[in-house]
TrEMBL record:
CDD domains: DRG. SUPFAM superfamilies: P-loop containing nucleoside triphosphate hydrolases, TGS-like. The lineage of its organism: Eukaryota, Fungi, Dikarya, Ascomycota, Saccharomycotina. Gene3D superfamilies: 3.10.20.30, P-loop containing nucleotide triphosphate hydrolases. GO terms for molecular function: GTP binding; GTPase activity. InterPro entries: Beta-grasp_dom_sf, DRG, G_OBG, GTP-bd, GTP-binding_2, GTP1-OBG_CS, P-loop_NTPase, Small_GTP-bd. This is Ribosome-interacting GTPase 2. It comes from Wickerhamiella sorbophila. The keyword Nucleotide-binding applies. Involved in ribosomal function. The keyword Methyltransferase does not apply. Keywords: GTP-binding, Nucleotide-binding. PROSITE patterns: G_OBG, GTP1_OBG, TGS.
Length: 370
């Protein structure tokens, strides 16, 4: 019997030799669906195996957000951690100096950001080369992936790392596709397009679902730009993580000004020299921005707002209710209304309910019963 790795190999070869055109479109879509299915099987631990591919690496989450340093060996991940946090992680010229995850804390704008130094990864990491498996599954737990790259090395390095993360279901700087997918007991496959699809059709969706042995489901495609790959991601949702990524090119002290400039202009990219302390402040600001944290200042009734110690929330969860929950559970139960000053309201202050979304640097006063 052929094993999964061989099946994957066969599909990849078939994909490579199949010409892309109208006639082969469905076949290619189906092959991609199969590929995703086998890859997933490969990642699942066998019977009796460990339940977590990240074993031995777990570090408790702490602070308001987690940033994972991902990169090839010797690009300067540990040097960076040692520079921007109080933690010292071993630095050396040879590859694989770091063998486990080393957490540090970056304090910025009142927030504590956990930065995880990790072993270097290489091509094949997602299939278990080196500590690759553990590293990529730790990356999955991050709120932001900081991909550390060596500015003196070719651009292909970045593509290799991206592929390794892709292979385990991590999607970088991408929103979850705008598709609603509901499994059902009966009724067959029902596909609805909110707008005429550009890259997908009903037949394609139906044949991929059949290949996944899904016979009954409701599919609502809201975005006309959704691709076959996106749709396959939606069916495999529980194994997909959509994580922001910032590309950090280190060692710019060793390349020309022109090259530094070129790298700095790439999307989601920033350039630094850790050893020369160049660009670090900018890097920290970019990390802060990409984490989308929100500072909320509390204002006790009748006194000035406390501008020293903001309450930190994630932008995705920054309603008045989230704010209440962060301060103390009781606040939500006794809540009457909130007075809010800042960019989230039309007039400052404004009386708001629990559902109001707070923005960065708003000031909030809570009014409670009893
Ligand atoms: N020229 C230059 N060298 C640097 C810079 N930052 C780090 N290095 C050097 O790069 C080498 C590797 O640094 P590390 O911090 O150990 O790299 P790493 O990515 O943690 O490596 P592994 O743990 O082995 O994956 C060391 O010799 C550092 O001194 C920099 O900004 N410029
Ligand atoms: K090293
Ligand atoms: Mg290291």
């Amino acid at each position: 019997m052929v094993n999964i790795t061989e099946k994957i190999e066969q599909i990849q070869q078939e994909l490579a030799r199949t010409q892309k055109n109208k006639a082969t479109e469905y076949h290619i879509g189906l092959l991609k669906g199969k590929l995703a299915r086998y890859r997933q099987q490969l990642l699942e631990p066998g019977p009796g195996g460990s339940s977590s591919a990240g074993q031995g690496f777990e570090v408790a989450k702490s602070g308001h957000a987690r940033v994972a340093l991902i990169g090839f060996p010797s690009v300067g991940k540990s040097s960076l951690l040692s520079k921007v946090t109080k933690t010292k992680s071993e630095v050396a010229q040879y590859a694989f100096t770091t063998l486990t995850s080393v957490p540090g804390v970056l304090e910025y704008e009142g927030a504590e950001i956990q930065v995880l130094d990790l072993p270097g990864i290489i091509q094949g990491a997602s299939e278990g080369k080196g500590r690759g498996r553990q590293v990529v599954s730790t990356a999955r737990t991050a709120d932001l992936i900081l991909m550390v790259l060596d500015a003196t090395k070719p651009d292909s390095q970045r593509a290799i790392l991206e592929r390794e993360l892709e292979a385990v279901g991590i999607r970088l700087n991408k929103e979850r596709p705008n598709v609603t997918f509901k499994l059902k007991q009966t009724g067959g496959i029902k596909v609805t397009f909110a707008q005429p699809p550009q890259k997908l059709d009903e037949k394609m969706i139906a044949s991929i679902l059949r290949d996944y042995r899904i016979m009954n489901a409701d599919v609502l495609v809201r975005d006309p730009e959704v691709t076959v790959e996106d749709f396959i991601d939606v069916i495999n949702e529980q194994h997909r993580s959509y994580i922001p990524c910032l590309y950090c090119y280190n060692k710019i002290d060793a390349v020309s000004l022109e090259e530094t400039d070129r790298l700095a202009r790439q999307p989601h990219s920033t350039v630094v020299s850790v050893s020369e302390s160049l660009g670090l402040q900018d890097l920290i600001e970019r990390i802060w921005e990409d984490l989308k944290l929100v500072r909320v200042y509390t204002k006790p009734k009748g006194s000035k707002p406390d501008l020293e110690e903001p309450v930190i929330l994630r932008l995705k969860r920054s309603t008045v209710e989230d704010f209440c929950n962060t301060i103390h559970r009781d606040f939500k139960d006794k809540f009457k209304f909130a007075m809010v000053w800042g960019t989230s309201v039309k007039h400052s202050p404004q009386k708001c309910g629990l559902g109001h979304a707070i923005e960065d640097e708003d000031v909030v006063s809570l009014f409670t019963r009893g």
